[in-house]
Amino acid sequence: MATTFRTHRAGDAAALAALTTLAMPQDAVDVPTLTENVLLDENFQPEGLIVAEHDGVPVGFVYAVTSAGAGSGQEAPGGWLTIGCVHPDHRGRGVGTGLLTRAVRYLAERGAAWVNVAAYAPAYFVPGLDVVAYPEAARLLEQHGFTRLYTAAAMALELSTYRTPADVLALAEERTAQGYQLGPATPDDLPEVIDFAGRELAPDWADAVREAVLRHGHLHRLRIVRGPTGVAGFAIYGAYRGLRERFGPFGVDESLRGTGLGKILLHHTLTAMRAEGAHSAWFLWTGEDSPAGHLYRRTGFTVTRRFDVLRHELTPSTQTTRERSE
User: Fold this and answer.
1) For the chain, what is the radius of gyration of the CA atoms?
2) Which pairs count as long-range contacts for 168-172, CB under 8 Å and 24+ apart, including other chains?
């Protein structure tokens, strides 16, 4: 029987989550995670969740979503492929090509000027494609015009033997004497921290802080540094899915970088994580050669995986005649 393609319907969530354990084992997701990041995505449309079936059984799927209402900050509207896979036994039979071409066409029909693989801020699973773990997917995407925008590094630090360095403690004393205050956030700090995160760092970081406190509580996991003029930086752990050992987001006012406040805040947060019983600290995204990347390495973090953010620029010919005339 030939493979058929359709869009989302009731009963898919469990089957698709089970499929990820076979087709993408390093990034398998459970039903609650798939539900939160796809079915409850604020931009979800059933036509964007495309499923490949063989003999009535799902053997592949892809989720495509447009930027309409996503607050992407991009001048041109875009689209994302946030998750997708094909059962190992059905690869090489055109299933991946069928899913990919349908997903790109779906996004083009809705006015997307480009398509990214992952890097969808409102609800992403991973930052991009791990080409080492999934070389077949990398080849497929390359064949269909996707090229690398940048590479994100995931890092981790073992905390079982962690202790706050003496030089960090000394530097913290100096900054305290200069009027900086370091500690857990209070409820009254939240409006200012959320405003700072969205205005000075990234809009989705403001959302991450707000959602973390609303969903999981644990306000003590939000650590801030205050200066003479207000909030100067923050770090949080357990923000995503309540995972205690997941570190971040983390950032300091750009005008204060080079003062050591980021270093102090990072170690302060790691100390709090260790005190709470965390055995490691890990995160999914940083630029290896960025200031943050260098800070993490000096702290002892090591790269665990790398993810390529891929993009395919859509040409006007990709769009339908109806859209070109509008």
Assistant:
1) 22
2) 168/263, 168/264, 168/267, 171/260, 171/263, 171/264, 172/264, 172/268
3-state secondary structure 258-320: CCCHHHHHHHHHHHHHHHCCCCEEEECCCCCCCHHHHHHHHHCCEEEEEEEEEEEECCHHHCC
SS3 92: coil
Q: Distance (Å, rounded) from C-alpha 153 to C-alpha 157?
A: 13
Domains and CATH numbers, the chain: 4-151+308-325 (3.40.630.30), 161-278 (3.40.630.30)
Sign of CA dihedral 208, 294, 155, 217: negative
Strands 222-227 and 230-237, bridge-based pairing? antiparallel
Mean pLDDT within 289-300:
94
The answer to whether the CB of 68 falls within 8 A of the CB of 44 is: no
Query: Residue 118, by phi and psi: left (phi above 0), alpha (psi -120 to 50) or beta?
Result: left
Residue 316 is predicted with a pLDDT of 60
Please name the residue ranges forming H helices in 80-233.
95-109, 135-143, 166-177, 190-196, 203-216
The alpha carbon of residue 155 and the mean position of all alpha carbons in its chain are separated, in whole angstroms, by 13
Q: What is the pLDDT of residues 226-236, one digit of tens each?
A: 999 999 999 99
pLDDT > 70: percent of the chain: 94
Q: Which residues share a beta bridge with 313?
A: 114
Question: Between β-strands 79-86 and 114-117, what pairing exists: parallel, antiparallel or unpaired?
Answer: parallel
* DSSP type of residue 87: -
From CA 54, how far away is CA 60, in angstroms rounded?
A: 9
- Torsion from C-alpha of 170, 248, 30, 49, nearest 10 degrees: -170
0.85 exceeded by pTM: yes
Of 125, 153, 123, 142, the C-alpha closest to 297 is 153
Helix orientation angle between 261-275 and 291-299, rounded to the nearest 10 degrees: 50
70 pLDDT above the threshold of 80: no
Residue showing tokens 């390495």 = 297
